[in-house]
Design a protein that fits this description.
3-stranded antiparallel beta sheet; 7 helices; 7-stranded mixed beta sheet; about 25% helix; about 240 residues; alpha+beta
């Protein structure tokens, strides 16, 4: 007797990742793939995160036993340094990276200890905040046409000034609310200098977004942990 077979399909996070990268590629950005096991210089020091910054505390970062210089990367913002330092790229350039990142934190409906990020950087002469906002609005507009967007000031050590972008999140049967999906800003002069460039000549903007939260918006998922629990009945919906 012949057994019925079913055809598999891509994981919803993979589907969204391909859409996100296609948009950035269409906007002229190159793609980079960096290591998940990262040095503290690429993950922290080179990105203007001082040794006493709370993000470097063991409660937030997975350190490697016996190796004070190695961590599981806490973000893909390492691409800001990896692209010019490891590949010899010279400005002007724009590059994005998608990959797993790790945070030692309590999990809940919108937080996980391992999740996916898309981070990028653009370096050129006379880069402005207006260019950054235009790029982000263009990206969001292509990914989610007509989705309400809110931009507000924020702080990240590797940018100055910094902003956060929120999208309006609606759940069935619940009131809608703003959900923070990315942080961005103009690259800090110290980071430009650590790239190997003169900040008096070159400027840039950088951004980082959690793809899991974008996927929650895309598919109407109310708990981020559902993407990782291996429930086939859940995954078959996509």
């Amino acid at each position: 007797m012949l057994m019925a077979t079913t055809t598999g399909h891509l994981h919803p996070l993979t589907q969204l990742t391909r859409r996100v990268l296609a948009i950035w590629r269409d906007l002229g950005f190159d793609l980079h793939d960096g290591p998940e096991l990262e040095t503290t210089w690429f993950n922290f020091d080179g990105l203007n995160v001082p040794p006493d910054h709370p993000a470097r505390d063991v409660q937030d970062t997975f350190f490697i036993a016996g190796r004070d210089d190695l961590v599981l990367r806490t973000h893909c913002s390492t691409v800001q340094l990896r692209w010019p330092k490891s590949h010899g790229a010279q400005p002007p350039f724009g590059v994005v990276e998608v990959g797993k990142v790790y945070r030692h934190e309590a999990t809940d409906a919108t937080h996980e200890s391992m999740f996916y990020q898309c981070d990028g950087v653009y370096v050129n002469r006379q880069v402005t905040m207006a260019q950054l906002v235009t790029a982000l609005n263009t990206f969001i507009g292509r990914l989610y046409p007509n989705k309400p967007v809110r931009i507000r000031p924020s702080f990240f050590p590797f940018v100055e000034p910094g902003i956060e972008l929120d999208l309006w999140w609606e759940q069935p049967g619940k009131p809608g609310k703003w959900l923070e999906v990315l942080g961005a800003g103009l690259v800090h002069p110290n980071v430009i200098r650590n790239m190997g460039f003169d900040p008096a000549v070159w400027q840039g903007y950088a951004f980082g977004m959690g793809l899991d939260r974008l996927a929650m918006l895309e598919y109407g998922v109310t708990d981020i942990r559902q993407f990782y629990n291996g429930n086939l009945e859940f995954l078959k919906q996509f």
